[in-house]
Write a sequence for this structure.
């Protein structure tokens, strides 16, 4: 079994993607792209793009394609919908691209970094990179060199306090800015300023900001309730493609706190000037620590709340309908908070609340309007209380039912479906599963039906075959996440077409097989030989003759300089021809050569239909 990627039409949504380590190959006339990141990269590999990263590509006149999604495979970029050269036009075309892909991107585009870059995925999504190139059809590929267009901040912290760091916040900066994806020119910046939570790495923290002039501060929060605030002495310009490095020292309250902040650049371009920070101010340990008590009718156990960087006590809870609870300080009832005694009921509404306050010492407990997960935020001493319901993401299944219905015009006497994921067979070994006993009939067309009831989610690879040697090339599904039924037309040349509307599908007239075949090998060369002709007694077969003065190795391939399609031994290993056998069974794109002794031989090969792959060979008289 030889596995080679087959690309179906780009309009197919379910069966047009590759399995995890394989992306589709380029089509004839398609623009090919290679990609590289100049200098430092934020990707997990630290040297290049990762496979399956997504990039947006724009192609100028005369191609005129906008924001085409492309997938990284090695150093290549493969557009999901192929970008093709204009036939007959050999002039230069301007291409530009950006990362990460956004389906709503236009040439003048507002890009915003993530406000919470704690997760590596959100940190990576904040790294905008651009590339541009001019190329012509004669070029082997369009080379796109990506470079960083935002500014990176790296923060090193020497923590001498003995307490653990719970967060590092870069405060008072803009999140978004318009940028020209073609030129990199910067446009309007957000007027609103906010905070960015940094991503923790070995030895420090890092974050990405849009280029801007700002006077930010850095707040470092600790698990003992203290926070250290470092304020920038003057305004600073964060330039595109440059990195600022901060070095901070946290000492205990009773000691002097030294702070250094300077700019250093590793793989990004150097900044000319450093930043000057004032000595940090230190927030003392809170007077009280707050907790929630009473959940699940447990009035003995306090659930501690956490003081966040904004000075609010917060806690996420899983609330059961009609549960009651209160807030109290220091695990004691001396200071507590509940629903206001003036309220008509004890239900505290989530979201926008016209009176979002609790009452100190109220004897009334707190209830929420419905079961679910909630985030609680409490301010002391104002007693402001904000309840936010957290919408739960649905749990995606790990297995689904996949039904593949196949209408075949190959003439094969048997049909099997072989499936796999990550090189592991799903429905047994080769040749795979047989169809159900009863056909599925839609619009008077009978389909062989294959039902995989516990099919893993994700991308599935599959091959249709006749159980002997005839087979399709490797096919791949889309990202399957739910029960799915697909309809396929298996044509006479073993290619496959997705039937998008089976209720109206009528098979068209199939094209006759027009491929020309040639015998190549050690007796002539491995590129081209004498073209074989159609057998007048069998339209699905070709015939020819060759002569070898010595023992020879050979294959039969489609005419052309490249090895796109050929027949080799079905075993995949070099095989000697047995002239006493009725025929030798070959397979499409199989490894290994055929061997035969010196002489002149008549050759007939069946290239289509139920007997595809049968090689008849005899010594010429």
């Amino acid at each position: 079994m030889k596995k080679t990627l087959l690309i179906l039409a780009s309009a197919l949504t379910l069966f047009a993607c590759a399995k995890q380590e394989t992306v589709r190959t380029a089509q004839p006339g398609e623009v090919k792209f290679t990609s590289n990141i100049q200098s430092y990269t934020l990707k997990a590999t630290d040297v290049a793009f990762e496979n399956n990263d997504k990039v947006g590509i724009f192609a100028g006149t005369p191609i005129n394609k906008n924001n085409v999604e492309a997938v990284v495979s090695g150093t290549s970029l493969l557009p999901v919908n192929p970008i093709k050269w204009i036939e007959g036009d050999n002039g230069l075309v301007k291409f530009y691209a950006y990362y990460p892909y956004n389906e709503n991107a236009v040439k003048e585009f507002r890009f915003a970094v993530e406000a919470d870059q704690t997760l590596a995925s959100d940190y990576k999504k904040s790294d905008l990179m651009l590339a541009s190139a001019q190329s012509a059809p004669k070029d082997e590929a369009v080379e796109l060199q990506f470079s960083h267009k935002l500014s990176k901040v790296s923060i090193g912290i020497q923590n001498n306090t003995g307490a653990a760091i719970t967060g590092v916040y870069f405060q008072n900066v803009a999140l978004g800015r318009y940028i020209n994806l073609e030129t990199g020119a910067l446009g309007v910046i957000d007027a609103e300023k906010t905070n960015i939570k940094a991503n923790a790495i070995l030895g420090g923290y890092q974050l990405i900001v849009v280029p801007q002039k700002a006077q930010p501060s850095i707040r470092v929060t600790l698990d003992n309730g203290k926070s250290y605030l470092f304020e920038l002495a003057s305004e600073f310009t964060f330039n595109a493609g440059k990195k600022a490095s901060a070095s901070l020292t946290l000492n205990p309250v009773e000691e002097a706190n030294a702070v250094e902040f300077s700019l250093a650049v590793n793989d990004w371009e150097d900044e000319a000037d450093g930043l000057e920070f004032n000595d940090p101010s230190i927030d003392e340990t809170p007077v009280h620590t707050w907790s929630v008590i009473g959940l699940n009718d447990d009035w003995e156990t306090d659930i501690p709340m956490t003081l966040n960087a904004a000075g609010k006590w917060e806690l996420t809870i899983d609330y059961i309908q009609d549960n009651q609870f209160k807030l109290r300080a220091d695990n004691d009832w001396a200071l507590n908070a509940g629903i206001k005694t003036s309220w008509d009921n004890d239900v505290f509404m989530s979201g926008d609340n016209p009176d979002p306050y609790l009452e100190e010492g109220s004897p009334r407990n707190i209830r929420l309007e419905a079961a679910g997960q909630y985030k609680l935020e409490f301010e002391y001493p104002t007693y402001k209380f904000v309840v936010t319901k957290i919408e739960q993401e649905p749990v995606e299944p790990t297995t689904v039912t996949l039904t593949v219905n196949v209408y075949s015009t190959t003439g094969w006497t048997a049909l099997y479906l072989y499936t796999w994921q990550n090189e592991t067979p799903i429905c047994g070994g080769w040749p795979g599963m047989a169809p159900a006993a009863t056909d599925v009939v839609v619009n008077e067309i009978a389909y062989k039906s294959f039902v995989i009831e516990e099919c893993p989610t994700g991308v599935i690879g599959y091959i249709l075959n006749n159980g002997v040697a005839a087979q399709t090339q490797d096919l791949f599904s889309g990202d399957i996440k739910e029960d799915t039924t697909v309809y396929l037309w298996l044509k006479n040349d073993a290619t496959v077409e997705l039937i998008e509307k089976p209720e109206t599908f009528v098979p068209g007239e199939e094209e006759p097989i027009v491929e020309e075949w040639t015998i190549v090998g050690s007796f002539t060369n491995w590129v081209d030989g004498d073209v074989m002709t159609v057998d007048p007694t069998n339209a699905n077969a070709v015939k020819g003759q060759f002569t070898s003065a010595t023992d020879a190795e050979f294959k039969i391939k489609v005419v052309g300089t490249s090895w796109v399609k050929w027949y080799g031994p079905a075993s995949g290993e070099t095989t000697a021809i047995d002239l006493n056998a009725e025929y030798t069974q070959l397979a499409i794109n199989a490894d290994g050569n055929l061997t035969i002794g010196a002489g002149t031989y008549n050759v007939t090969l069946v290239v289509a239909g139920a007997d595809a792959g049968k090689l008849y060979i005899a010594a010429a008289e």
